[in-house]
Amino acid sequence: MEDSTKERVKSVFGKNADKYLKSESHAKGNDLPLLKDWLEPENTWSVLDIATGGGHVTKALAPFVGTVFSTDLTEEMLENTAKHLNAIFDNIIFVIADAESLPFLKDTFDVVVCRIAPHHFPNPEKFIEEASRVLKSNGKFILIDNIAPADSKLGEFMNKTEKLRDDSHVRCLSKDEWNHLLQVNNLVVKKSLDRKKTFAYPEWVARTTENEEQVNRVKQHLLQADKETAHYFAITKQGDDIESFMIDEWMVMCEKL
User: Fold this and answer.
1) In terms of CATH, what superfamily is 2-151+166-199+249-256?
2) What sections of 23-62 are H helices per DSSP?
3) Ramachandran quadrant class, 194 (left: phi over 0; alpha: psi -120 to 50; beta: rest)
4) How far is residue 143 CA from its own chain's centroid?
5) What is the pLDDT of the chain when averaged over all its residues?
6) pLDDT category, 9, cuts 50, 70, 90?
7) Which helix (H) or strand (E) is 85 found in, with range?
8) CA 157, CA 225: separation in Å to the nearest integer?
9) pTM for the whole thing?
10) Fewest CB atoms within 10 Å of the CB: 104, 143, 156, 201?
């Protein structure tokens, strides 16, 4: 099950590498400028960017630190990102790596960041354990991801929406679940931010769907939302077409004890 999930991740992201590089929600999120503001980076730091995707975290931090190790499970994705970023920076090392089994020694990095990726991880507890392991004492860890609402019905609706669109999706955790994993791995929350993230539906659904039948399944699922669910996710429609909807995202910075 776990191996097949990771193979699906590699398949989906390998085929859509350039879409993620150019995706508005990934490349221009309001959270990216906050990385520098929150971290106050130093030019001697070694940073690990887990599941870099289109390299947006790496690009945001590379000008201000010593070295960024930019990692991803998907070789095609990483090659595409390296092609773009190597033309700009000379302090990035690209490494094919599994977020749940990182190929680095303990206490290696001053900063570890993972953005809009953990909902693809089959074992988020292993990911947090690994992030803490490779982080130096007093080092900083930033997690940014879509999260499930605390209400279980809304959480199930959100996760089904994501799974219908993207077969590599595993599950968005709730804040309570993330806080538990952080706590048991000696990662103390220092700062956090909740925000609503709006997706332009046509671009969002086209990013990972493979055919019109799949697109229609996502659309019908959203159209069938009850009044409470449609209100929570701010589903906007024009006739039978969906224009946009909104999900919860959480950004948290921790310090390792």
Assistant:
1) Vaccinia Virus protein VP39 (3.40.50.150)
2) 24-27, 31-39, 56-61
3) beta
4) 8
5) 93
6) low
7) helix 75-85
8) 8
9) 0.91
10) 156
Q: Across the chain, where does the E strand assignment appear? A: 46-50, 67-72, 92-96, 109-115, 135-147, 187-200, 236-238, 241-256
- Pick the closest to residue 49 from 7, 82, 12 (CA basis): 82
Structure tokens belonging to residue 139: 């080092």
Average pLDDT rounded to a whole number, residues 108-120: 97
d(CA 175, CA 189): 12
User: What is the per-residue pLDDT for 77?
Assistant: 92
pLDDT digits (tens, 9 = 90+) for 177-236: 999 999 999 999 999 999 999 999 999 999 889 999 999 999 999 999 999 999 999 999
Q: Which two tokens stand for residue 31?
A: 């959270």
Burial bucket for residue 5 (CB in 10 Å: 0-12, 13-18, 19+): middle
Domain ranges of the chain: 2-151+166-199+249-256
